[in-house]
Write a sequence for this structure.
């Protein structure tokens, strides 16, 4: 049973105001990474609390855990005390803006451009994820005077730096946040306009590696030839990580990758894939080929296989470079691991590979700085059926079930702390959105459709979970 037409009409009548609320939140540079101003996260949390209070929610409060950026919690009880409870999760912190000169419009001045998309840091990841639910909740309260189920919200302030305090926060407030279903508003859609329910996430292992060949930099003319340099030696070492086809070449890396069951393979096979669109959304330069095993589909490579990338590389900046042989170079190796792989085992495997036979006998040190498992669930049961109906009604086309190549560290622990309740992972990121990159954007038509879907979801869960 979906939302009444008058609820959807209320969302549409107030849509411009909902976009304006999103813009105001996205103007706040609430970057949770180190070296950015933490006071902006305080300002962001207060703004979120103000929005939720204006929507009509109760018990709105900014909560803090020592050492963490602030959380915002709120709730609204249904008229029926026996109604089920949904806990909605979003986050108000954002990624650093990156290279400011690459933004066509300022990162923290959200702008609707000629293509009709809203551009700005955090507009899709994840402030729209909060605002779409705020729009749906407001419409229900303004037209019906009550919600069809109890709703609680938790809005985190450090998701972009790994949610290091979230498990402790959930344990501390377990009773207050208890629910029958968890709605995570921070994932992606298969394509623009295609509503998607995410049922798996890859994990991540990050290895920092440093390589030294000299006690200090030396003149490249006086010593170059017989004496090696660290940058070249590290490049050689990193080149061993993948083969010429772009397949990870670390022995044993994929030893514990679970086989997909027939149902999952069938779901992937049903999904449409257009290579030209995929290449365009990724920004691949003309002539650059896709990498990975040809006998494995792109979606399986993205969602269910490990991938290796060098995500940071450091020797000497161009601005301070001289004609020298560099003494030391560093890199960060990021390994996205398949759902079900053991991050501890993968970390040990990669560290052994990097330190076993160093080029030119260099001194190599490697350590794991992040080890996060993936996650997966079976999309069966009344909560998942309700979500599919709501997404289909909101977007006007059938919902699909997908995986996600990214990592959301808290999802697994969140489910455990909350007692194993169903977790519905929904979101607004689409292939062109460039979340985490410069010129992050949101499709505003999908924002409207997602608000409709949220309104339907409240109704569907209210019936399905009784």
């Amino acid at each position: 049973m979906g939302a009444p037409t008058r609820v959807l009409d209320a969302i549409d009548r107030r849509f411009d105001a909902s976009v304006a609320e999103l813009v105001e939140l996205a103007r706040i540079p609430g970057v949770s990474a180190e070296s950015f101003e933490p006071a902006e996260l305080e300002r962001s949390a207060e703004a979120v609390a103000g929005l939720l209070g204006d929507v009509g929610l109760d018990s709105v409060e900014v909560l803090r855990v020592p050492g963490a950026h602030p959380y915002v919690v709120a709730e609204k009880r249904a008229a029926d005390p026996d109604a089920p409870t949904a806990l909605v999760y979003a986050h108000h912190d954002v990624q650093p803006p990156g290279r400011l000169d690459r933004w066509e419009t300022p990162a923290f001045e959200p702008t609707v451009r000629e293509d009709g998309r809203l551009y700005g840091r955090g507009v899709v990841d994840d402030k729209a994820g909060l605002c779409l639910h705020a729009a749906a909740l407001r419409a229900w309260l303004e037209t019906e005077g009550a919600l069809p189920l109890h709703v609680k919200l938790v809005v985190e302030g450090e998701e972009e730096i790994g949610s290091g305090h979230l498990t402790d926060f959930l344990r501390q407030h377990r009773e207050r946040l208890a629910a029958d279903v968890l709605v995570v508003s921070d994932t992606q859609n298969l394509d623009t306009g295609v509503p998607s329910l995410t049922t798996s996430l890859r994990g991540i292992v990050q290895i920092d590696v440093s390589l030294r060949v000299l006690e200090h930099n030396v003149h490249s003319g006086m010593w170059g030839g017989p004496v090696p340099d660290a940058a070249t030696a590290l490049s050689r070492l990193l080149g061993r990580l993948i083969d010429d086809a772009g397949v990870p070449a670390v022995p044993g890396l994929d030893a514990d990758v679970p086989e997909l069951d027939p149902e999952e393979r069938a779901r992937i096979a049903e999904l449409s894939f257009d290579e030209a669109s995929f290449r365009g959304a990724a920004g691949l330069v003309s002539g650059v080929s896709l990498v990975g095993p040809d006998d494995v589909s792109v979606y399986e490579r993205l969602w269910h296989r490990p991938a290796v990338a060098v995500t940071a590389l450091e020797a000497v900046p161009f601005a301070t470079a001289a004609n020298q042989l560099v003494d030391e170079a560093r890199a960060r190796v990021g390994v996205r691991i398949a759902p079900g792989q053991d991050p501890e085992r993968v970390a040990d495997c990669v560290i052994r590979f990097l330190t076993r036979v160093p080029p030119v006998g260099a001194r190599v040190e490697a350590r794991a700085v992040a080890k996060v498992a993936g996650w997966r669930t079976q999309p069966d049961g009344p909560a998942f059926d309700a979500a599919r109906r709501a997404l289909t009604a909101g977007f006007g086309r059938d919902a699909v079930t997908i995986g996600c190549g990214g990592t959301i560290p808290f999802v697994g622990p969140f489910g455990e702390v909350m007692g194993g309740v169903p977790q519905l992972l929904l979101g607004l990121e689409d292939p062109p959105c460039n979340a985490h990159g410069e010129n992050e954007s949101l499709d505003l038509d999908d924002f409207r459709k997602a608000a409709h879907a949220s309104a339907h979801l409240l109704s569907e869960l209210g019936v399905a979970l009784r």
